[in-house]
Structures are given as structure tokens and as C-alpha cells.
Amino acid sequence: MLRYFVSRVMFMIPLVFLLSALLFVYMRVLPGDPVAGILGPEATPELVAQLRAKFGLDQSILSQYVVWLTDLFQGNLGISYTSQQEITPLLIARIPATLQLLLSGFFVSLTIGLPLGFLAGRKRGTPLDNILSTLSLIGLSTPIFWIGTLFVMFVGVSWKLLPAEGYIPFSENPMLSLKLTILPALTLGLVLAPYLARLTRAATIEVEHESFMHQARANGLKGATVTFRYSARNVLPQILVVLGMQLGGLLGGQVIVEQLFNWPGVGRLLIQGALQRDYPMVQAVILIIAILFVLINLLVEILHALMDKRIRL
Amino acid sequence: MKIKKQLFGQSWLKKKLTNHVLFKNLLDSKTAKIGLFMVAFVIVIFIVSFIWTPYDPTFMNLEERFESPSFDHLMGTDQFGRDILSRIMIGSHVSLLVSCSAVFGAFFLGTSIGVLTGFIGGKLDLFITRIVDVLLAIPALVFALGIVAILGPSAKSVSAALVITYARQFARITRDAVVSVKNKSYIEASIGLGHKTRNIIYKDVFPSIFPVIIVQVTAALAWGILDEASLGFLGLGVQPPDTSWGSLLIEGRQYAYQAWWIAFFGGVPVTLSVFGINMLGDGLRDMADPRSSRNYFPKKEKKRRRKDLNHKLEVSTDQQHILEIKNLSVDFLSDAGTVRAVSNVSLSISQGEIVGLVGESASGKSTLALSILKLLPNNGEVVGGEVLFQGRNILEMSQEEMRLIRGDSMTYVPQDALAAMNPVTRVKEQLSEIVRDHGNKSRKFQSKRALELLKLVKLKDPERNMNNFPHELSGGMQQRVVISKSLALEPKLLIADEPTTALDVSIQAGILELIKNIRKNQGSSIIFITHDLAIVAELCDRVAVMYAGSIIETGTVSEIFSNPKHPYTRSLIGGLLPLNGTPPARLKALDGQPPRTGDWPSGCAFHPRCPLYEQLGRPIECRTNQPKTSTKSDMDWVTCNFPEIEILEMK
């Protein structure tokens, strides 16, 4: 068991290396000049050269990469082109806000998606299943920024049930912090919930056809035993297999929700960076998000191995 | 672009498009039809907007700022007095053109990479696939954001970014599909025959992976519209004064406090288009995925090896019937209509008796077993007769009453032991939960009983194995565990549905021995469903022969084997003991095909295959009337018009 975990974690190291290299190349190979972007069309050649030297852009790509990688291992993600500040502390300061939203959004999607999908799968072909399946397809088709805006307009502004936007750290004012989290988390949760519901429904139907379900009934087990110990216990590992990849959607949604609710997280750094062509910033945030994504997938894989006893470790 | 040209130059694609099952069935699916209708609606709006919009979408009229929806402006006006509806219509140009071109660009780029790497294989494949995998570790929207950051915000960069973003997925999926197709024999044959690689790709590989790709394209189109709108909303798409569906929502969000209609109507077109495409995609996927149409009885009955016969002449002399089935009929509802799977079946089983239920596949054996357990699938229904278990009609019991009987006094032993056990719980838990769900809450008793049961079925090393998961046991051990589960509460009746069919012959003997001991020690009655007459001869006291949903003859084992009456029974026994002395490998296959479930011939269902029917010059009563029933003893009977006439062929 331990060996399995270690080998999985070891596998991540070359992956992160390759990721950083690809990311670096991709930021440099594509056409586009950040310096020209920052200084505008009227900049003098001297000024351009000066700025290029400052950012190390006058050196070869390889040496730029080596510098970036060495810095990276010392926890230094570089200097922002636009604000001229170090990126690492900027990022770290925003991580709590991002995690707060991400985790609560994930929680919302689980509490909506899993039970509804399971219910639809168990009641396959009934009117309830049809309603739930149509709802999840609608959810799948609705852009998140629209749902979010509607929440702001109706729940936040018209009905004044909850504060519409903003962020306060949990440590400063827990009550208000939670209230402020509800709408963004609900919006983010609705990104993943329809996928989860569909996956759960499909997995439940798959399990329903297994002969152990029939045998459980033939053995006279109680309905609750069949539902939870047979159906649900076998559905969960199946969902975990596909869940990892779907979480990418959640991370993408996070960026939009942060913008939508003025949530000062990592995602907004990415958007600002993209709008201002702040390469080091964009590169750093993407790397962080990708590593987060890989880590989540690793976690999911380990969880799956723990749940599905048939996987040999 | 070269590939694109060649693709459409080939006539096979055209043929595929019109002949492919996918497209033939497309209009049969309700989901796909609704989706198609919505997509068509969006396309019409898109085309109309080139010619006509209610107002000039760029015309600013500051006197009509923030007007709420009215007859003049159906969806209201924005902060510059521009008509929202007109802006939505014009916005479709950027949104649809950018997303569609991105998806098709990604399609050509991605499938080209996928097909080439998948087909060439080797190190190149390994290298590129690894890179694609690493790139896939960046979530789609974040990946696209990164590219737009480099190219600068504009509709063109969004399009380019989405091409690269989706190409990753296309490349990965196509590559996997190609590799799996490549290993199929007919492609290998093509390669072996020395066909040109290019031709193989076009003629063999593309058509096979076509369904996968088409489903992926629909999915990507839905994604494309959503992602384009998202990037537009983040301000990275078209720049003002141009409009797209995404950028419209920037204003919607900005003026959410003053003008709800901008945000409200602004999101409708994206949702509508994506919903339509998703419906279409769902319809397509259901058609491409054969698993969506499942058989109700997917269980396949396997062919059996013959074993040495040794007749057991033990006649049951019995008093009380544990089970009495009287005139039971079961119907199944299917797309084709109502099908009679079991018709007018009567059967009695005495205390401590082992009755063999034999018959060909689809003769109704399993349905009969399910009816006794009251576990018919939702589309099955008992339409007549009664099933008396210990004197009570189970058809009149509630499901909860029946549940308490199942697993307690009536149990079921399945064919495939491993598949019938919960893969995620230990043997011990599987046994104790049966005891628990039938009322004994004591944990101590539950685990004591579990161990006792495993010892009873002679499981090797029960203390250790009870803590194992089912897949960790050998096939024989699995079957023993499943049997022990059915013995948990000392059942009066065991229904064993080919419990030895999946096992090796040497293990089979041990299981049969176990079943005999159950009867000896617990006095349980057993219905033993099987294909294997050798097992019947060895194990059973009585036999019931099923054909076309009816039991056509019953009798003691000695009687059935020495003096079968029904021509069908006689053919079965005749096949087992041929005169030339060389035992055949399995049941003699009777001439002709067994009838399909519910599609029984008129009169005596067996008459089209009956040797007597031919011999007697095709008597009309066999064709038109139900065959008459003659009793052989107070328990046994045969349903044949001519049970006494000798069959000449068999001599």
C-alpha cells in the first residue's frame, strides 16, 4: 500500500518538471511581445531594451528557463511585469480566499449532485428521473457567469437575502465571511453538480444491473441495506474514477466566480495578468492551478484505491 | 488543410453520413429531435441577423437609456440606449463563428495528431501522448486564458486559444480509439495485405472511430460556445463596440443593480444553443452506445460437459408439500408487446425433496424461479395462478412480508458466485447482514453464526477466509460462500440456479456433495435448475422438464430416465444414451431451433420438432389443441397426446 502511494507521488515529480518546461516554452513560443504591450506603441527603443534587460528577456530561452526553474525551486515565482512586485507573496496572500471558495463550491456540488444523481439512477425511467435528468442537462448548458449574475440580481439585490459580493477573511468575521461565501459557493457548485449528477446516475444504473444487487434482494436484505451497502458503496468508487478529470471544470469555474463576485483570489490574478499581458504572473498562476489539479487527481486516485478493494496495490 | 480536402474528397464519408446507423436512428430519438429543433432555431436567428435586426445594434439613443422591456424594445435597452435584442442577434456572429471555427480547427488538428501518433505508434506516439497528457493537466478554461494572455485580448485569439485547448482532447481520444481499432483483426489484415497506410486510415480506421468522434464534436461545440462566452465575459474576447454573447454579460453584471433585463436576456442565447447541442449530443450518444439497450436476461447459459452417470434410485415418498405452484402464468411487457414467458405451470415439491428443473435456454426456467422468489423484473407480471409456499400464497403477500421469507425460509443460489457477491464488503459482513436484516441484532451472534456457516459448507480455513473479500477466494470457495449465505437461516426451500455451471468439473463434485448434505442434515427442499442431465441423475429425486414456458413432464429420476413419456423428454434422454456407445459431449441438439420466448407454436408447442408428430403423419390435434395431460402418479404427469407410442427413429 505504502509503496503504491510513494510510487504515485514519485511519478508526479517528472510530471511537474515537464509541465513547467512546457508552460515556459508555450509562453515564449507563441507570438506576442510583453514589453511592447506594457510600454505601448510610442516607446523609444532604448526604453524597450532597458525593460527587456530588466526582465531577462534579452537572454536565450534556455537560460531564461534555467533562471526561472532555479528561482522556482527556491519558491520564487518571479516578478510581475506590471506591478513590479514579487509574485510569490502576492499569490500566497490570496490562497486562503481561493481555497475557501473552492472547497465550499466542491461541497455544494457534492451535496447537490451525488444524491440527485443517485436518486435518478435508482428510479430510472420514472417521471422523477426524467425531471432530474432534464434539470441536470439545463444546468450543464447554463453559463456560470449568467447564473452568478442572476443570483446577485435577485437574491442579493432585489430580495436582499444575502450580501451580493465581496470577501472578508474567516478569521476577521466568521459570520459575515460565511454569508459572503454562500452565493459564490452556490454558483461554483452549480458548475460541477450537473456533471456529478449525470455521472452518478450512469454509475448507479450500471450497478443496478449487477447480479449482486439481485442476489441482495434474493437474500431478503432490507431496502436500506441494498441502497446503501450495495448500491451506494459500489457507485462511489466508480464516480471517483471520473471525478478527477471533472474537477478541471471546477478550477476553471473558480476563475469566473472570483471575477463575478469580486472575490480576491488567485483566479483574479490570472485574469488581471491575462488582460495586462503579465507573463510571469500568468505562468505562475497556471502552474499553481495545474499542480493543484494534479494533486487533486492523485488524492482521488488514492481514495479510489482505498475504496475499491479489487484494485491490487 | 490537405487532410481536410482529402477527407471530403472521399466518397466513403458521404456514404457513411447517410448510411450510418447513427443518422438513421437520429430522428427516432425524441431527445435528439428536440435538440435538433433548438439548434435549427438558433441557426435561423443567426442567418436572419445578417439581413435584418429590429434596430441598428450600434445605434446609440441616449434618450432611451435603460428602458425596460416593452413592445418597442422587446428585451429593453442598455446604458447607451441600444436595443438588447438586436445586440443579441448581432452577437451571435462572433459567438457562433468563433466557437464553431475553433471546434472544427481543433477537430482537424487534434484528430490528425491522434490518428498519426496512434497509427504510427512506437516512441513518437509515447512522446506526443505524454506531452498531451501533461498539457491536459491544465483545466480547459485556464489553458485558454493563458493563450489569450499571450496573444492579447481579441476574438481571433479566443478562437486560436480554443483550437489548441480542444485539440488536446481530440488528439487523446482519437489516439486511443485508433489504437484500439488498430488491434482489431480486420485492420491487421489490411496491414498484412500490404495496403497503403493512407488508404487504411481513410477506409478502415476513420469509419470505425467515427461514432466516437462525432459525439466528441458535439460535446466540444457545447463547450466552445460556453468557453467563448466565458472568455468574453472576462473581457478577453471581442473588444467594444463589437458584441458577443459573453461580452454582453459584462454590462449585464455591471448594471445588475439598475437593469435586470440586460443580464437576464443576455444569458438566454448561450443557454438555449448549448442546451440544444447537449440534447442532440445525448441522443447521439445513446445511439452510439449499445449498452443503452439492455436485455432483461443477459445471463448466458453455458454448455456443459457430460459426467459419468450413476442413477440413484431413491424414491421420495412424501407427505407435505413445501411448495405448490398452481397454473402459474407470467407475462413480460416489451417493445414488441406482451410476451408469455411462463404458461400455466403447475409443480409440487415435497419436504426434503430435490427436484431437477431442466430445459433448453429460454424455456422459462429462470422466470419460474424469479416468480417463486417474487423478484420478477419490473416489466414482468404474474397474470394467473398461485404459488403456495408452506400453504400461503406468496402472490398475495406484501413485498416486506416476502422479503422476510427470502433469505430466511426460501433462498436462492445463483450461477456466478463472484458476480453475486458485494465486491466491497468482507465475507463475514455479507453473512452477518443477512442474519441482521432478518431480526437478530446481536453482533456476537451474527459473527458466531457466520463462522458456523462457513464451517458447515466446509470452507477451507474459515477464520481467515471470513475476513477476505470475495475476489480473494477461489471459484469453488466463492460458490461455497454463496451457498453458506443462502443457508444462514436454515431455509425450507433452496432454489439453485445452475450453481455448478461456472465451475470446474472437479470442484463441481464437491459442491454437489455439499448440496446433498444440506438436504440430509437440514431436510431442506431444493429446486435445482440445470442443463446437465448427468447432474440431475446424480443429485435429484424428481425431474420437471420445461419446454416453451410449460412443464411438459414430471417424474421420479428413475422413471424419467428409464421410461420417459414425452417425445421431448425421450429425445433428451435418447441424446444422452445413444446406442452406438460413444457418449456425446453434451445434450443432443434437437432438430430445429428452440422457439423464442413467447413466440410459442400453436397446439403442442413442441410439434414442429416432434419426431412422433412426423411419424404419425402430422395429426391435426397436435397442431390445434392443447395436448392432454395424463397422470402417471398422484404427483407426476405428462402433457402429450400420444405418450405411449414408440418413436421408431430412436431404435
Overview of the structural elements:
The complex is a heterodimer of chains A (313) and B (651). Chain A has 313 residues and is mainly alpha-helical. Chain A has helices at residues 2-29, 34-39, 45-54, 61-73, 87-122, 127-141, 144-158, 174-208, 211-218, 223-260, 266-276, 279-307. Chain A is built from twelve helices and no strands. In chain A, α7 crosses α8 (174-208) and α10 crosses α11. The longest helix of chain A is centred in the C-terminal third of the chain and has 38 residues, at 223-260. In chain A, 40% of the residues are buried. The mean pLDDT of chain A is 85. The longest helix of chain B is centred in the N-terminal third of the chain and has 37 residues, at 84-120. In chain B, α5 (84-120) packs antiparallel against α10. Residues 1-14, 290-319 and 576-589 of chain B have low confidence and may be disordered. A six-stranded mixed β-sheet of chain B has the order 6-7-8-3-9-10, with helices on both faces. Chain B has a four-stranded antiparallel β-sheet with strand order 2-1-4-5, covered by helices on one side. Chain B is built from 25 helices and twelve strands. The chains are: A mainly alpha (313), B alpha/beta (651).
